[in-house]
Design brief:
By secondary structure, the protein is α/β, with parallel strands linked by helices. The protein has one domain: Rossmann fold. 42% of the residues lie in helices and 17% in strands. The chain is built from 11 helices and 8 strands. Strands 1-2-4-3-5-6-7-8 form an 8-stranded mixed β-sheet, sandwiched between helices. Helix 3 links the parallel strand 5 and strand 6. The longest helix is centred in the middle third of the chain and has 21 residues. The protein is globular and about 45 Å long. The two termini are 27 Å apart.
């Protein structure tokens, strides 16, 4: 197992993990806001044990990558991924994105489809989260302005509160993991506040409609129908209609962070999709 960094054209250091045989089928994992590659532990360990090559990076401004003041938007995120996949000489990788990472996968796959064999969007933000005239079912700007205000006022406290709805721990009968909540907080606080602040605009206002239409590889769209962070009606259900080769899988009662709360279920479905 190895960890390393690459340096992009603008001097940003991108941290990444690269585990498993270099000759094996590669899976690249793209994390959500404001987390890091560590959010994929349950998937990385499982798929490494299955003989895959597993790769996950910390998005610029997040985790152990440079705490950038610039480039905190989707085009640069996708360019960073392109730099990483080029460095690792990945030809036909599987790309898996959660939440904001799903947007990153959509933008990357639209621009570099020849390097992508299959794609997975999990609780992902596309087509667009923000309510607009063209997207009446989206969330109002006040929601995202609230995120920004709370981050500015007290990021540490805000990041203590987000994991509860993120993992559905506010639902009756939920099995609350204090470790998962602490780990979410730890990952969030590792990153840079400026980059995380800017990323709120990136994940809420970027319109991925045209990206989704361009993607020409099998794409699995996975979403919990009790996702309190990225509501399913205005994300997965719309994305599945825009993608050329989509498979939609809805998880009754599961939360946004279902890769952490229900890894056995998610990993099994990912494995079946990869082997199909």
């Amino acid at each position: 197992m190895s960890t390393s960094t690459i340096t992009t054209k603008d001097g940003t250091q991108i941290f990444y993990k690269d585990w498993g045989p270099k000759t094996a089928q590669a899976i690249v994992f793209h994390h959500g806001w404001p987390l890091s590659a560590d959010d994929w532990d349950a998937q990385m360990l499982f798929f490494a044990a299955q003989g895959f090559r597993v790769i996950a990076h910390d998005r610029r401004g997040h985790g152990r990558s440079s705490q950038t003041a610039t480039g905190n938007e989707m085009n640069t995120y996708a360019a960073d991924v392109a730099a990483l996949t080029s460095h690792l000489e990945l030809k036909r990788a599987f790309h898996v994105g959660h939440s904001t990472g799903g947007g990153e996968v959509a933008r990357y796959a639209a621009l570099h489809g020849d390097r992508v064999a299959k794609a997975v969007l999990i609780g992902a933000v596309p087509p667009i989260m923000l309510k607009t005239a063209a997207n009446p079912g989206g969330l109002p700007m006040e929601v995202f302005d609230g995120f920004r205000a709370q981050l500015l006022a007290n990021r540490a406290q805000f990041y203590k509160e987000v994991p509860t709805p993120f993992y559905g721990y506010n639902r009756p009968g939920a099995k609350v993991s204090e470790g998962a909540k602490d780990n979410w907080w730890r990952q969030g606080m590792m990153g840079g506040s400026q980059a995380q602040y800017d990323c709120i605009k990136a994940f809420s206002e970027t319109d991925f409609t045209e990206d989704l239409k361009k993607i020409d590889v099998p794409t699995l769209v996975m979403h919990g129908d009790d996702d309190q962070i990225v509501p399913i009606a205005d994300s997965a259900l719309l994305s599945a209609k825009l993608l050329k080769k989509a498979t939609l899988k809805v998880y009754p009662g599961l939360p946004h962070g279902m890769c952490t709360t229900h890894p056995d279920m998610i990993n099994a479905d990912l494995l079946a999709f990869f082997k199909a």
